[in-house]
Design goal:
CATH class: Alpha Beta
Distance between the termini: 17 Å
Shape: globular
CATH topology: Rossmann fold
Number of helices: 8
Number of strands: 5
Structural class: alpha/beta
Bound molecules: adenosine-5'-diphosphate, thymidine-5'-diphosphate
Length: 208
């Protein structure tokens, strides 16, 4: 079962992904937490390139690099984990590419990108995606030092945030939008309640 977290930088995704992992582990599961870009040796190296403030990267090249990182992550970590019945939680997945490279960078049109993304992940679709919805101005206040992506500017993050809203409206059965201005605890409680309704398998009896 694949669960993903989405939202603009500083929205509180990583905090919620971590809390969910901890709660699942406390219930006896052996969930895996991954982040994008990253999670494999190659993907972490690509992450270093993508976030490097000293590199100039064209919008389409950026799209390909994020996608290369994701392709490797799916092949090396996500598929095998899903095949062994584990719950995989991913801090960002292909919706990020739709929002950041598709809408933010305006690198490619949406129809092309949807087909491409499906090729990159081999048709894998998350069971649930939690979108932490927060005003871009508020998110900036929560962020620390800016990496290459975070220095993209207000108009860019406005387009990214707007695309996330569109995605949530387009996929209401998969994407659950949560008000990121709520407390950490309230957000986790809402996520946990929803996760329990997902029909989780019983936790494994033997340690993995
Ligand atoms: P992201 O992974 O989306 O960049 P983080 O989870 O790293 O966001 O959170 C960014 C900052 O905001 C951190 O300092 C975190 O402690 C804080 N934060 C996270 N969730 C909330 C919340 N619901 N309310 C206030 N601050 C939060
Ligand atoms: P990271 O520090 O992991 O993000 P966050 O601050 O949200 O936790 O940095 C990842 C950056 O890469 C972030 O700015 C979003 C961006 N990104 C894309 O532009 N496209 C993508 O497909 C993905 C996965 C991330």
């Amino acid at each position: 079962m694949l669960i993903t977290f989405e939202g603009i930088d500083g929205s509180g995704k990583s905090t919620q992904a971590r809390l969910l992992i901890e709660h699942l582990a406390a219930e006896g599961y052996h969930p895996i937490l991954l982040r994008e870009p990253g999670g494999t040796e190659l993907s972490e190296k690509v992450r270093g390139l993508l976030l490097d403030n000293d590199l100039r990267i064209d919008g389409f090249a950026e799209l390909l690099l994020f996608s290369a990182s994701r392709s490797q992550l799916v092949a090396e970590r996500i598929r095998p984990a899903l095949q062994s019945g584990r719950i995989v939680i991913c801090d960002r997945f292909y919706d990020s590419t739709v929002a950041y490279q598709g809408a933010g960078r305006e690198a490619v049109d949406r129809e092309w990108l949807d087909a491409f993304n499906q090729r990159v992940v081999g048709g894998l679709v998350p069971v649930r995606t939690y979108l932490i919805d927060i005003d871009p101005g508020e998110a900036v206040k929560r962020r620390r030092a800016g990496d290459r992506m975070e220095t993209a500017g207000e108009a860019f993050f406005g387009r990214v945030a707007a695309e996330y809203q569109k995605l949530a409206a387009e996929f209401p059965d998969r994407i659950i939008k949560l008000d990121g201005m709520r407390t950490v605890e309230a957000l986790h409680a809402a996520i946990w309640k929803d996760v329990q309704a997902l029909d989780l398998p019983p936790p494994p009896r033997d340690p993995v």
